[in-house]
TrEMBL record:
GO cellular component: plasma membrane
InterPro entries the UniProt entry points to: Lgt (IPR001640)
PROSITE patterns: LGT
Keyword entries, A-Z: Cell membrane, Lipoprotein, Membrane, Transferase, Transmembrane, Transmembrane helix
HAMAP family found in the cross-reference section: Lgt
Entry annotated with the keyword Lipoprotein: yes
Organism: Microbacterium pseudoresistens
Gene name linked to the record: lgt
Bilayer topology term: Multi-pass membrane protein
Name of this protein: Phosphatidylglycerol--prolipoprotein diacylglyceryl transferase
Pfam families named in the record: LGT (PF01790)
Length: 332
């Protein structure tokens, strides 16, 4: 007969425990691990995007100038999207409307972040002269990796888990958790949707890096693959989550958003493939980037000679042409 200790050991080795803490205090400052996961993801995305943009020929750290606008707008839009798609969390009788601003408690919607971040990135690219689609392609693997890191924040917050399961990798959720479904016995395990998305996103990073090199995907085509890849996975994980969500025509709000992401990705891929079958000439827009001022100045100079133009035909006259080059000269 197995002992109680053996049963306990089996439970520990065949399930995923939730972290015991979601924050720690540093003097008078309370640090939420959810926020650290988001910040870590942003830093990793910036570093990877900077590396990829620099390899394309952009100035080092131009990504910082773009991120200054893209990151704040992305976070704001992500929170707004979450609040609008989960109104029952914040509005109504007995609800604390100020919780709308309690971003450290969770509630960052990636689809809102994509919308706000895209607006900020477009403005940042206008400012720096980087082509918007060049930046989007450089960002694609980094943003997917950032999303993977951010999902660990949901794990620390004991939130956004899936349906009950008896699989050996089921997630342990304490029965005192407000999100624990009523009527289920204590000790029920749940699908660790955070882990599913982490694995899917990390695999997606590898796919994007490989596809970008193998097929030379530019003009936003790699970003389109990102939208299709993430949307396909999110449609599945979102469908088995049990946290409250608005339902439209039988599907959760974020399932519709994921489907929209897939459609947008397909449209971008088709349109950009038809419009731009070749490669990008530069990561910068025409007339922008390092040395652009010098080139424009040279174009305006009366002494400028276009060495790339073919030589003009000699003027035909009645006298035979004679050569003034000395015999045995260097240019023959």
């Amino acid at each position: 007969m197995p002992t109680a200790l053996q049963h306990a050991l089996v439970g520990v080795t065949t399930s995923i425990p939730s972290p015991p803490v979601s924050y720690f205090d540093l003097g008078p400052l309370r640090i939420h691990i959810y926020a650290l996961c988001i910040i870590t993801g942003i830093i990793v995305a910036v570093l990877l995007t900077n590396h990829r943009l620099t390899r394309r020929g952009a100035e080092p750290w131009v990504v910082i100038d773009i991120a200054i606008l893209a990151v704040p707008l992305g976070i704001i839009a992500a929170r707004i999207f979450h609040v609008l798609t989960h109104p029952g969390f914040y509005f109504g009788e007995g609800k604390n409307i100020w919780a709308v601003f309690y971003i450290w408690e969770g509630g960052i919607a990636i689809f809102g972040a994509l919308i706000g971040g895209a607006v900020g990135a477009w403005l940042g690219c206008k400012w720096t002269g980087i082509r918007f689609w060049t930046f989007a392609d450089a960002l694609a693997p980094g943003i997917l990796l950032a999303q993977a890191l951010g999902r660990f924040g949901n794990w620390f917050n004991h939130e956004l888990f899936g349906l009950p399961t008896d699989l050996p990798w089921g997630l342990e959720i304490e029965s005192s958790n407000p999100a624990f479904p009523a009527g289920l016995p204590e000790g029920t395990l749940f699908h660790p949707t955070f882990l599913y998305e982490v694995v899917w996103n990390v695999l997606g990073v590898l796919v994007l890096l490989w596809a970008g090199r193998a097929f030379h995907l530019q003009w936003g085509k790699l970003f389109a693959i990102y939208l299709i890849w993430y949307g396909a996975g999110r449609t599945v994980w979102e469908s088995i989550r049990i946290d409250p969500s608005e339902i439209y025509f039988g599907l959760r709000t974020n399932v519709w958003a994921a489907i929209a992401g897939i459609v947008v990705g397909i449209v971008i891929l088709i349109v950009q493939t038809r419009r731009h079958p070749g490669r990008e000439p530069s990561p910068y827009m025409p007339g922008r980037g390092p040395g652009a001022a010098e080139v424009e100045s040279a174009d305006d100079s009366s002494d400028y000679v276009d060495l790339s133009a073919p030589p003009a035909d000699p003027v035909v006259t009645g006298a035979p042409a004679t050569s003034t080059a000395p015999s045995g000269g260097e240019g023959s």
